[in-house]
Write a structure and sequence with these properties.
Radius of gyration: 17 Å
Strand order of the largest sheet: 1-4-5-2
Number of strands: 6
Largest sheet: 4 strands, antiparallel
Helix content: 40-55%
Structural class: alpha+beta
Strand content: 15-25%
């Protein structure tokens, strides 16, 4: 008899949290300012902040092997941790925040592709965690690089380059 262990890990904000609301990335649904329900952090210089992350679910059998047919990796936006300072709303800034969400989707796809290509041992759980940690580190670095190069959306030319780059990444990855 095969025993299945369902592992659902929500990885957001660097830890496991109980998130009451999340929006799954969907090419047909763009973010709206009404999605930003968090309290602004007035000590921060920027006008808005998006909280995004990847969730993963998979099954491991009683011998420790991953069932690749039951792997689900999703990019999510977390409304209660995302905010906009009143009076700062603009379509341009909303597109910047959407790009953060799109970057998370790129890395969710990358993690899915890595899992698909990896040959797992009986230590699948540790191996999947290692892959997640690797991709999450890359995702965070890309998010930071995006904000650094665009100066949190203030450098319009760099902003447009990044938007095009991320759209290209989405088109080149599975699911795009």
């Amino acid at each position: 008899m095969r025993f299945l262990l369902l592992i659902l890990s929500l990885c957001a904000l660097g830890s496991f949290v109980n998130i009451s609301e999340r929006i799954e990335w969907d090419i047909k649904r763009q973010l709206e300012w009404s999605d930003f329900k968090g309290t602004p952090v007035f000590l921060e210089n920027w006008a808005a902040s998006s909280s995004t992350g990847m969730s993963q679910s998979y099954q491991i059998n009683n011998k420790g092997f991953l069932d690749k047919n039951d792997v689900r990796i999703k990019a999510h936006f977390y409304p209660e941790y995302s905010w906009i300072k009143e009076g700062r709303e603009s379509q341009y800034l909303l597109a910047h925040e959407q790009t953060h969400f799109d970057i998370t989707e790129v890395y969710a796809r990358k993690l899915s592709e890595l899992i698909e290509k990896t040959t797992f041992s009986k230590n699948s759980l540790q191996e999947v965690k290692a892959l997640y940690n690797q991709v999450e580190k890359e995702r965070v670095a890309a998010q930071e690089q995006f904000d650094l190069e665009t100066k949190h959306s203030l450098e319009r030319e760099e902003e447009l380059k990044w938007r095009a780059k991320v759209k290209g990444w989405l088109m080149m990855t599975k699911g795009g």
